[in-house]
């Protein structure tokens, strides 16, 4: 009984909290704030999932937008073409469509990862970048999902509850994974791939596993995005979107889940926080200041905001320092 409580107690508690927040959410904030919060959640899922590959496993993927596009289009196509295939319950249909979109993205991650993860560094980055562009060009030419016109009429199922639930599932899964034997294998691959091979760790297998899990959650983020925006176009999923997610991972700290979450929030809110400056000056300085802010942060904190530490580690360090004083 104690083990069951420890395993399922926190997830059930978080679901109740998310449900309460979702009920108060429309009453407390206007549509603009609601949109920003949802986008923060989507970017948190993208950043944390990419950190599993780039931060914990030591690879360098810049094709995350491709996996996001696969999950977004598959789940949106199911919602538009088969709105009640799983029954009359909207939330059940949305959940299943989101999971199916994530699974298709995971299959795409496997297909890309198996042959390409034998490569390293710049070569891997080029392959993943090429994959993202292939997905975008395919979507441009498939009339079943709208082609260049885009996919319209997607039901707006995404809510704060579903966004926070998937953020929690993503973070919880990767935290538990990194605390397991598999997590130690990921770190061994990152630190020294040759040494890891020498002690019997199948490095290619673990890199593919990390790639598949990362792609799955990117597909989940894509589904939430699609069912919130209610419209998809291939131009949304260019390599610039992948670079945005890479910036979140690097800025937050390679190997820090907390850092990825904080950086995702900063990257999402910073351009909007600078919007009043544009109204005052009548000149759009937002992207210039946005870029300069990122440069200053990376010059002053080259290891990222959190490095490889988590919020709990920083809290323990702060409490220990306060106790010693």
CA-CA gap between termini: 42 Å
- Report the count of strand segments: 0
Order of helices and strands: HHHHHHHHHHHHHH
Largest sheet: none
Structural class assignment? mainly alpha
Strand content of the residues, in percent? under 5%
Q: How many DSSP helices?
A: 14
Features:
325 residues, mainly alpha
What does this structure look like?
This protein is an all-alpha fold. It has a domain at 15-239. The chain contains 14 helices and no strands. Helix 4 runs antiparallel to helix 9 (203-229). 41% of the residues are buried.
Task: Give a summary of the structure in a few sentences.
The chain has 325 residues and is mainly alpha-helical. The protein is built from 14 helices and no strands.
Topology at a glance:
Elements: H1 2-28, H2 31-56, H3 64-81, H4 90-116, H5 121-140, H6 160-178, H7 181-191, H8 193-198, H9 203-229, H10 239-252, H11 257-273, H12 275-281, H13 286-300, H14 311-324
């Amino acid at each position: 009984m104690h083990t069951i409580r420890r395993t399922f107690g926190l997830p059930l508690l978080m679901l109740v909290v998310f449900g309460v927040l979702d009920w108060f959410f429309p009453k407390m904030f206007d549509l603009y704030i609601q949109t920003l919060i949802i986008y923060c959640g989507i970017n948190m899922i993208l950043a944390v999932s990419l950190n599993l590959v780039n931060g914990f496993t030591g690879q360098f993927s810049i094709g995350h937008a491709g996996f996001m596009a696969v999950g977004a289009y598959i789940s949106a196509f199911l919602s538009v073409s088969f709105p009640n295939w799983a029954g009359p319950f909207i939330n059940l249909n949305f959940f299943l469509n989101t999971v199916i979109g994530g699974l298709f993205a995971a299959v795409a991650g496997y297909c890309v990862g198996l042959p390409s993860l034998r490569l390293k560094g710049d070569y891997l980055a080029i392959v993943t970048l090429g994959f993202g562009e292939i997905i975008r060009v395919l979507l441009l030419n498939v009339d079943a999902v709208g082609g260049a016109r885009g996919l319209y009429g997607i039901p707006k199922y995404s809510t704060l509850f579903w966004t926070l639930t998937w953020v929690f599932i993503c973070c919880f899964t990767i935290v538990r994974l990194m605390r397991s034997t598999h997590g130690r294998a990921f770190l061994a691959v990152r630190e020294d791939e040759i040494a890891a091979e020498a002690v019997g760790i199948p490095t290619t297998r673990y890199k593919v596993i990390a790639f598949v899990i990362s792609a799955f959650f990117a597909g989940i983020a894509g589904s939430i995005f699609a069912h919130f925006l209610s419209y998809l176009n291939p131009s949304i999923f260019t390599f610039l979107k992948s670079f945005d997610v890479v910036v979140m991972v690097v800025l937050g700290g390679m190997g820090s889940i907390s850092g990825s979450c904080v950086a995702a929030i900063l990257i999402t809110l910073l351009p909007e926080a600078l919007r009043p400056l544009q109204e005052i000056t009548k000149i759009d300085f937002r992207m210039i200041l946005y870029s300069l802010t990122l440069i200053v942060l990376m010059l002053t904190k080259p290891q990222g905001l959190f490095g490889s530490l988590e919020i709990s580690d920083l809290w323990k360090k702060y409490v220990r320092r306060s106790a010693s004083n």
